[in-house]
Amino acid sequence: MAAYGDLMRTPGVLRIIAAQLTARFPNGMTSLALLLHIEYITGSYGAAGLVLAATSIGQAVAGPITSRWMGRWGMRKVLALTTAVCALAIFTIALVPMTLPAYLALGAIAGLSTPPVQSAARTIYPKLVNSRQLTPLYSLDASLQEIIWILAPVLITFVATQIGTWEALIVIVVILVGGGAWFIFSPEVGRVRIPRSKRRFGKVLTRPTVLLATVIGFLLIGACSAVEAGVVATFGHGGLEAGLVLAVFSVGSLAGGLAFGHIPIGRWAMARRMGIVAAGLCLTVVSLNVWWLGGTLIIAGIGIAPALAVLFAMTSVSVKFSDTAEAYGWIGTGQLIGAALGSAVAGFLIDGVGPQGAYVAAAGMAIIGFVIALVFVRAFPDLRHRDPSPIPDTEPVPIIT
Predict the structure, then answer these.
(1) Alpha carbon of residue 270 to chain centroid
(2) What angle do CA 339, 214, 335 make, to 5 degrees?
């Protein structure tokens, strides 16, 4: 834990971590709040699902685009614009009765304007700390984001069910604007300037490490989404057990990230960590007993945050600083698509064979991720004796002879 103590004493680190977590807190609330609000207004879960789909598609499309814009117009301008548009779209959904097509359009706008806070924060990190501290910082970031997925759904469900659905959306707007302002006006955001990328849009995906990070992130988050669907199907929407089991899953990830954060990242790090996730998820198919699922998901969870930390570090070290934001945007898009696909596949299997089908889907996606990490192990950078900071941007310098 000494590495984390050093991080907390580094100027700006604690502030930027707290600000970005607060700004991203609505990410764990918006889907549930929209689902409950649109269902309440229209009386149809199908309509609510369509609005959620429009929002998710918007987020997936916008991720790499808005992230790349930060190199063109600056982080503060892009973050301020997207925060304002996203907040206005959610505010309108909350207070203005509309037809379903209008809700779909506003849902898409809210998704397209989701602030690229995650890409911005992970682009800033290499400028905050020295090379020795960067890997523990990525691990700490991956671990602490579990707080969003533990607390945010509980908070917004309580507000929506006990107070009202439109009030829940207003709470999201307040946190979105307040957390966004805190992050945007943090001195570290003003001090870091992302150079304008000279590559064409999407070229960063030709980097093997970025492509691998996107694919493995897609499979990892897809497996997590399938687990969530399986747990809800096993214990029911109102079951206390479902919330406790999912909380244990997140706590396992938090503990794993903190425990492995100080370990240097070698070529085999991703394979080992995805192996832990796959092993835990394979054990879930044995029994649907609450104690068994809790125990096996703790095992699986231990590998999740450490695997995400590898994704962040391998991306950082393999691209130029001007391309880091876009690279993280593509990785985020892959994870969003994985979440949607994992939930969809799990849903079909639950309808066909029962809750156990969701755990089979989750285990299958984790195994594929493990095999990919194993087969392409030589494509992973060895960071044990290497600075994990991004490649500096350089330009030709004219010489007078």
Answers:
(1) 17
(2) 15
Residue 327, beta-bridge partner list: none
Handedness of CA 249, 107, 210, 339 (dihedral sign): positive
Cα separation, 345 vs 355, whole angstroms:
12
pTM equals 0.80
Collect all residues with Cβ–Cβ distance below 8 Å to 206 and sequence separation of at least 6: none
332 and 359, same domain (yes or no): yes
| CATH code where residue 251 lies | 1.20.1250.20
Q: Is position 213 within any domain?
A: yes
Same domain for 111 and 52, yes or no, is yes
**Neighbour tally for 384: CB within 10 Å:** 12
Q: What angle do CA 101, 105, 109 make, to 5 degrees?
A: 170
Largest CA distance in the chain: 78
CA 39 from chain centre, in angstroms, equals: 26
Do 160 and 219 belong to one domain?
Answer: no
Q: Which residue has the higher pLDDT, 350 or 92?
A: 92
Tally DSSP H helices, then E strands, for the chain.
17, 0
Q: How many residues are listed for the chain in this entry? A: 401
Q: Residues 6 or more apart from 92 whose CB is under 8 A from it?
A: 106
Residue 281 near residue 362 (C-beta atoms within 8 A)? yes
Structural domain boundaries, residue 314: 198-390
**What's the number of domains the chain is made of?**
2
For tokens 């919330």, what's the residue? 243
Task: Assess contact for 35 and 29: CB atoms under 8 A.
Answer: no
Average pLDDT of the segment spanning 23-51: 82
Q: From residue 279, how far is each of 8, 271, 367 by CA, in Å?
A: 33, 12, 8
**C-alpha Rg value of the chain to the nearest Å:** 21
Cα–Cα distance for residue pair 322/126, rounded to 1 Å: 13
**Whether residues 111 and 158 fall in one domain:** yes
pLDDT per position as a tens digit, 255-277: 887 787 677 788 888 999 999 99
